[in-house]
Amino acid sequence: METRHLHQPEYTGAGLRDIFSTLFKHKWKIIGTFVFIVTAVTIGSFLMAPKYEAKSSMLLKFGREYIYRPEVGEKGQGISPMISFNQTEIMNSEIEILMSRDLAETVISHVGLETLYPEIMKNPPEDVAPMELALAIFKKDLSSEGLKKSNVLEVTFQHRDPVKAADTVNLLVDFFREKHLQVYEDTRSGFLDKQVVFYEQKLKESEDQLEAFKQAHNVFSLEEQRNLLLTQLTELDTLEKDNMNRIEALRTKLASLKTEMENIYQNIDRYTETDRYRIIDDAKSTLLGLQLKEQKLSEKYTDNNRLLINVRNEITIIKNFLKEQEAQIKSNVKSGNIVYQEVEKEMIKTATELQSLEAKKSSLAGQIQEVQGTLRNLDLTDKELQKLNRGKELNEKNYKIYLNKFEEARITEDMNRSKIANISIIQKATVPVTPIKPKMTLNIFIGAVLGLIAGLGFAFTSERASQGLSTPEMVEKKLDLQVLTSVPHKG
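Now predict its structure.
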């Protein structure tokens, strides 16, 4: 049967018809390729050695390892321990430690290369060391990640033997905790120990210097000593002013008595022995009082004390006066003018008292100078004492700082030796029951997709390579001729 076909240049369904025509024409090729690839993938999956995955999870507690402690300073001075990293940085740091080459090599060596990867030992590579190849495989099969918004770290390891997979993960976690302590280990204890000994010696030296200075200068309470000296200086100043007033009064009185004696000189008679003895008795009484005062002062002060020296000077003056009077008694006539005798007696008493006050004035001036000098020396002593105290306080402060830091470092080392880490195991790795590789369903699905794609590709490639013209459109396209009639072929 013949059918007339009129060419329509704008016909849009020709492309889809060509596709279906090609698919129909090469259907057996497509089916064969699809079946072959799916079968090959399925058989390969069944023949592939299974791999098991063991998993362990850990909780990272932000403890002493992540605390920054300043090298100098102490609490209360604005410097205190603080967290040195944020959560993300800490988690990434721990993952790096967990995935480190040293840790992997330690685990492989502990388990045994021939036990963990016997195929490497059976057929060792020539161009690379067995351990290097084992490390590459180990790191490929090992993975670690931190769970989001948590401090949980998961580590997984894949191996053909499920028991070895679980044992390796658990061993890795144990070594990881040791490695973690080594990385964050504080190695300053030796240095701090030396500093503690050094500042302890300096503190002892400064204490000895301070004590020697106090003993040498009789320093016990400078403030109390200063107050006592100021009080003594005030009293001495008052005594000096009072003494000056009495001296002025006695000088006036003595001048008046001399004038009176000159007026009555023309009527002068000789002294009587009785009055002369009375003057001597008064002088002796005064001498006795001064001697008693000397005895009391000698019990309190040394021979260099100004008060004691002045009293002894007064005693010497009165003794000399007594000698003069006793010598005059033997040569004087024992009778005279009574008025003259009274004035002369009063004049002698006044002169004696004036001499005593003059001596006291000199003594008070010396005492005031001595107290003022002591105050000046006390100020110098106070400055030196403050300097020694500052040195002692500084050494004591440094000693306490280094002692506290040494104790912290020693405690940290003890905890590290006891393997006390801020890492807690949430779940140890258990022996997996089912392998994670191969995944049969996924592999077959992927094989089917690949088989279909390969079949279609094979069909369209075969059609393109073919020399025949199966559709009017292909005739027009390749021959650039207009198709007038097409006759369907019935096979």
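The chain has two domains: 14-187+418-477, 222-408.
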